[in-house]
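Hi all, posting the design record for the shared folder.

TITLE: backbone redesign
STEP: 1 of 1
STRUCTURE INPUT:
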């Protein structure tokens, strides 16, 4: 834990060292990128549902194709909305786990600092 305190004043080499030694976690920003990529995939699914519904409506002229296309459109968009909510919950779970890890690290560092102060006040013998 002590090298992280020493490395705060060294600039970009300290950042690189923190990344190599897992003193700094990069999972938070990576999860945000993965979240937006997943939303892009869900948006592609939603556009394909709209295209399928339009294709069904244009395939045959008549009311029957429209009656088939409308439920396909509504169901597909509802599934896409559900996927967005599930994807958000999935990504928030991982962000929460890594924030818990950061909070535990801060608590551990505070505990170590308190222990060091208490030890220096009492002395090594008691």
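Okay, here is what came back for every position:
SEQUENCE:
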């Amino acid at each position: 834990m002590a090298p992280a305190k020493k490395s705060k004043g060294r600039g970009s080499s300290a950042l690189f060292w923190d990344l190599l030694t897992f003193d700094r976690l990069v999972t938070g920003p990576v999860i945000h990128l993965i979240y937006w990529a997943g939303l892009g995939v869900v948006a592609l699914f939603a556009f394909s549902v709209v295209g399928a519904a339009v294709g069904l409506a244009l395939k045959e002229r008549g009311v029957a194709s429209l009656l088939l296309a409308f439920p396909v459109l509504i169901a597909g968009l509802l599934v896409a909305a559900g996927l967005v909510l599930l994807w958000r919950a999935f990504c928030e779970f991982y962000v929460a786990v890594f924030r818990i890890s950061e909070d535990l690290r801060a608590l551990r560092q505070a505990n170590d600092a308190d222990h060091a102060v208490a030890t220096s006040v009492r002395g090594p013998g008691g």
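COMMENT: Residues 1-7 have pLDDT under 50 and may be disordered.
Let me know if anyone wants the other runs.
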